[in-house]
Design brief:
Elements (H helix, E strand, L loop, with lengths): L16 H8 L5 E4 L5 H14 L2 E2 L8 E3 L3 H4 L4 H20 L4 H12 L4 E3 L13 E4 L3 E4 L3 H4 L10 E10 L3 E2 L2 E7 L25 E4 L6 E5 L2 E5 L2 E2 L3 E9 L5 E4 L1
Parallel strand pairs: 4-15
Antiparallel strand pairs: 1-11, 2-3, 3-5, 5-14, 6-12, 7-11, 7-14, 8-13, 9-10, 9-12, 14-15
Length: 259
């Protein structure tokens, strides 16, 4: 059996069933799947995405562009708004991947091969249907934050998840910088006092004494980390384009995707 050193930041963990469970428990900082996609696949997907064009979040500084929708931007009360927008978001995503390749489906297949869990797209209920998954983002800087559905969406089906991961596939990377920094500090209710007014971000004093993993963006690599941990994206020289979504572990052990 593989012996895991808790939160070693020196080397990247490789993807196995055991490291996936360790990541869900926050025993390790991240998993890197090297060469998940070829250089040619990344170039094609990024090229098509840029032709389609990015929308930018309102009132978010520094600006973040995206193709697709997120549950977070609809808040905890606007389920109908989110699910009304899913069809169009899925249509645009399918247009892009049909001209390149589908990272979401490739990752789902990998999860099915290495775990005994059921793997699929998160679903709210029979009336509202499936969530959107597979956000494409143009993001050069992201401030300190976390993503955890128990906080962001407690009244949604995804709010029942017992653990939550995020994955990023690097489609275009900066010449320098652009690291994702993940801190060995998971959100708890008392951390809300550090939330900055009018922003999605938190005061960096919250993590000043925390162990940190610096994840270097490498073209074609896919990285998973525990999104309940506070994290940020450092400035980079050049464009940084990713495809991403969340993976939630639900109470019965099934794994579900959403954005």
């Amino acid at each position: 059996m593989l012996t895991l050193q808790k939160w070693s930041t020196l080397e990247d963990s490789i993807f196995t069933a055991e490291t996936l469970e360790a990541l869900l428990r926050n025993d390790i900082p991240a998993i890197r799947i090297s060469q998940f996609a070829t250089v040619e696949e990344c170039h094609k997907l990024a090229e098509v995405a840029e032709l389609v064009g990015f929308d930018f979040y309102e009132n978010v500084e520094p600006p973040i562009g995206r193709i697709g929708i997120t549950q977070f931007e609809f808040g905890n009360s606007s389920k109908l708004g989110y699910f009304d927008a899913v069809h169009q978001a899925d249509f645009r995503r399918q247009q892009i991947v049909s001209l390149s390749f589908d990272p979401l489906e490739r990752l789902a297949m990998l999860l099915r091969q290495h775990t005994a869990s059921k793997v699929g797209i998160a679903q709210e209920n029979e009336q509202l249907g499936e969530y959107f998954a597979g956000l494409i983002r143009h993001i050069n800087v992201a401030l300190l934050h976390l993503d955890f559905a128990q906080l962001d969406a407690p009244d949604w089906e995804i709010g029942h998840c017992v653990a939550q991961l995020a994955w990023n596939l690097y489609l275009k990377v900066p010449k320098h910088g652009g690291e994702c920094v993940v801190y060995n500090r998971q959100w708890c209710v008392n951390d809300q006092q550090y939330k900055l007014p009018g922003s999605y971000s938190y005061d960096t004093n919250l993590v000043k004494n925390s162990q940190a993993k610096y994840i270097t963006p490498v073209l074609g690599d896919l990285v998973l980390f525990n999104s309940r941990n506070f994290h940020q994206v450092l400035p980079g020289e050049g464009e940084r384009i990713t495809m991403s979504s969340f993976i939630g572990k639900m109470p019965k052990g099934n794994l579900v995707f959403w954005s």
